[in-house]
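Please decode residue identities from the backbone states below.
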């Protein structure tokens, strides 16, 4: 099973459980009734924060990945050289 299939399966299960609780098929304590309405919003906000953290962490630690850094620098130099041969001023 691929990662996407597992993610989709877990999403469907979580959605089914949420709908079952929301419609009253699964009873929850009264104290959770008010909080339960905000669960989808909190899930989206949490996912967005996780994505932001992953992006920022990847940018901050980019220099630590020496092979990727060197490959990117080589590609930039190759692109600059190619543009120079075509008469484009670079830098």
């Amino acid at each position: 099973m691929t990662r996407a299939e597992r993610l989709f399966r877990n999403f469907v299960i979580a959605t089914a459980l949420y709908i079952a609780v929301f419609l009253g098929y699964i009873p929850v304590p009264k104290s959770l009734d008010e909080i339960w309405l905000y669960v989808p919003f909190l899930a989206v906000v949490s996912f967005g924060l996780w994505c932001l953290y992953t992006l920022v962490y990847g940018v901050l630690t980019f220099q630590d990945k020496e092979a990727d850094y060197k490959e990117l620098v080589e590609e930039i130099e190759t692109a600059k050289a190619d543009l120079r041969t075509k008469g484009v001023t670079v830098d």
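Observation: The longest helix spans residues 39-60.
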